[in-house]
Design goal:
115 residues; single chain; elongated; 3-stranded antiparallel β-sheet; alpha+beta; 3 strands
Length: 115
């Protein structure tokens, strides 16, 4: 909005390859809206440019940080889909030790799109 623009703050939403919102927040930049649009247009469609984020435990907040904007971010929310791998072993319940039967059951891949 106009108040954010005067402070050099821009709201952003990043998406995954299925066009689901995965990250929202504020981007800080002194550039005008037109300059930001031109910067995005200059990269969009070029080889190597990724228009979406991919789940990656080594990445920022559990996702890659390759789509515009990718610097000067204040992340407000992150949404994870399809599995609990984002917990990266941070759960108090260790399924592999406390319930070995779960570790032997087949993985259910029919959960695409679920939060």
């Amino acid at each position: 909005d106009a108040n954010q623009r005067n402070l050099g703050k821009w709201s952003f939403t990043k998406y995954d390859q299925l066009n689901r919102p995965v990250m929202t927040g504020m981007y800080t930049s002194d550039q005008t809206r037109l300059a930001l649009q031109n910067a995005l247009d200059a990269h969009f469609g070029n080889p190597g440019y990724a228009s979406h984020e991919t789940f990656d435990l080594a990445g920022t907040n559990g996702y890659t940080n390759v789509s515009f904007p990718n610097a000067d971010l204040d992340v407000h929310s992150v949404t994870y889909y399809d599995n609990y791998a984002w917990k990266n072993g941070q759960t108090a319940y260790d399924y592999s030790v406390l319930d070995a039967r779960l570790a032997t059951e087949p993985v259910n891949y029919q959960v695409k799109g679920q939060v």
